[in-house]
Amino acid sequence: xxxxxxxxxxxxxxxxxxxxxxxxxxxxxxxxxxxxxxxxxxxxxxxxxxxxxxxxxxxxxxxxxxxxxxxxxxxxxxxxxxxxxxxxxxxxxxxxxxxxxxxxxxxxxxxxxxxxxxxxxxxxxxx
Length: 127
Description:
By secondary structure, the protein is of the alpha+beta class. It contains three helices and four strands, in the order αβαββαβ. It folds into two domains: 1-35; 38-125, Alpha-Beta Plaits. A hairpin with a 2-residue loop joins strand 2 and strand 3.
């Protein structure tokens, strides 16, 4: 019983050392001012009706996203929602210094045939 407690204490101390090392590394990153990076963003664009031409929406959306993000890498997918309605999901890279995607989302909702735009995923690129 006593040896089990000693192992638990030793494991806890090792874990605490690892946590302290990680915290120190994070502090060094944020203190250096180099904490801006690149984010991978996915937007879901919903059309007004199922019979809207999704290709036109996609083309206009890609133009606006290119102006916003200055990145060439984009991934487009069309996903079924319900009753024949499909969404256009566009994934692209964005500089974190830009802040949020709200200005872009507002521009995208002005495209003819677009009902709504929603940011469904944001991930930070590490490395």
